[in-house]
Write a structure and sequence with these properties.
Residues 119-235 form the AB hydrolase-1 domain. This is AB hydrolase-1 domain-containing protein. With 340 residues, the protein is of the alpha/beta class. Helix content is 39%, strand content 15%. The protein has 2 domains: 2-38; 66-233 and 256-338, Alpha/Beta hydrolase fold, catalytic domain (Rossmann fold, 3-Layer(aba) Sandwich). The chain has 10 helices and 8 strands. Strands 1-2-4-3-5-6-7-8 form an 8-stranded mixed beta sheet, sandwiched between helices. β3 (120-124), α5 and β4 form a beta-alpha-beta unit. α6 (167-182) packs across α7 (197-211). The longest helix is centred in the first third of the chain and has 37 residues, at 2-38. It is elongated, with a radius of gyration of 28 Å. It starts with a helix and ends with a helix.
């Protein structure tokens, strides 16, 4: 009798354990379903954060705080706040003639040199990479050798600058930097050089300044795109978002409601500044025919003296970024500056 009771007790205990495990599994499953239902939006936002906002910084292994590593040893790195929460990394390179004097100098010294009478260039770069890209460093060295100051910023979201890149945001950054320079440059010429995406940024700020009664001293547009004549299907700042294949079918693209316009021709028709177009005949991103048509719009708005186009031999292989390698470029720039 005793043995029989023990068997019944063991059987009852096993049944209770099995039932408990079933309830635990059901409860856990129900909990997972509830959590998924009530936190789907948050879950999507978290996934998008990891999927989209892993930024790529090129070139790799470059310390943007140390421009001297790129032989820009008369350059200071600084950070400017274009608006609340947005810090812009900017390099200021002084003319080559001030190389020795610049050694060990602080930010105040660099700022004071902006009013020394030498022309000041603000260079707005293209839509990938940072201010350390070889062609941007190349242009900086040319301008410095010609005796000019160079301010080379990374827009918001680029390089070590904070914030998310949008057309309105980049326009705000460019206006802020221009005003910052003008407040410190005295009677020095301030010339804007835009390359690729930077041409759109430059042409966006010019009409806004005209509305305030300010006309840019001079503008250089290198590899200028034309949104009215080109089918630009890719979002300019896609690189900012690390997008894995297929995620677009599950999660909305973060730039969906941030359309990029850059009305090149509309802005050119409002320009009142001397413009120099620079374009390689073998540019693979903006065909030379587009460059000529864009120049015609600018010349019609002003005249051929105030809107000039200089093209470069396509056999040299400069493509979209390589004009800085041309031996004639320094003379072209110098002649333009002297005409202002």
């Amino acid at each position: 009798m005793k043995r029989r009771l023990i068997k019944q007790s063991d059987s009852s205990s096993a049944a209770r354990d099995a039932q408990l495990r079933r309830w635990l599994k059901r409860g856990l499953l129900a909990l997972i379903v509830v959590l998924l239902l009530f936190s789907l939006k948050t879950f999507q936002e978290l996934i998008q954060h990891f999927v989209y906002t892993h930024r790529i910084r090129l070139p790799f292994f470059i310390d943007l705080n140390q421009p001297a590593e790129l032989s820009l040893n008369h350059t200071i790195n600084m950070y400017l706040t274009s608006e609340e929460g947005v810090s812009l990394g900017v390099w200021h390179t002084v003319p080559d003639s001030q190389w020795k004097e610049a050694q060990g100098k602080d930010l105040a010294w660099y700022q004071n040199t902006l009013s020394d009478g030498n022309p000041v260039f603000i260079y707005f770069h293209g839509n990938t990479g940072t201010r350390a890209a070889p062609h941007r460093v190349g242009v900086t060295k040319i301008l410095s050798a010609l005796g000019y100051h160079v301010l080379l910023p990374d827009y918001r979201g680029f390089g070590d600058s904070t914030g998310e890149p949008t057309e309105a945001g980049l326009t705000t950054d460019a206006l802020y930097l221009y005003n910052w320079v003008k407040a410190r440059s005295g009677n020095s010429l301030v010339i804007i050089w835009g390359h690729s995406l930077g041409t759109g940024v430059t042409l966006n700020i010019a009409p806004k300044l005209i509305e305030r009664g300010v006309v840019l001293d001079g503008v250089i547009l290198e590899g200028a795109f034309n949104s009215a004549r080109q089918n630009i299907t890719a979002y300019f700042f896609t690189w900012y978002y690390w997008k894995f294949p297929g995620t677009g079918y599950i999660f909305p693209e973060p730039w969906r409601d941030k359309k990029v316009v850059y009305p090149t021709e509309e802005n050119l028709k409002k320009m009142r500044s001397p413009i120099l177009f620079l374009h390689s005949e073998d540019d693979h991103l903006v065909p030379i025919e587009i460059a000529r048509q864009t120049h015609e719009v600018a010349a019609s708005a002003q005249n051929l003296e105030r809107a000039k186009l200089v093209t470069f031999d396509g056999s040299k292989g400069y493509l979209h970024n390589g004009l800085y390698r041309d031996s004639h470029l320094p003379d072209v720039i110098k002649k333009f500056v002297q005409s202002l």
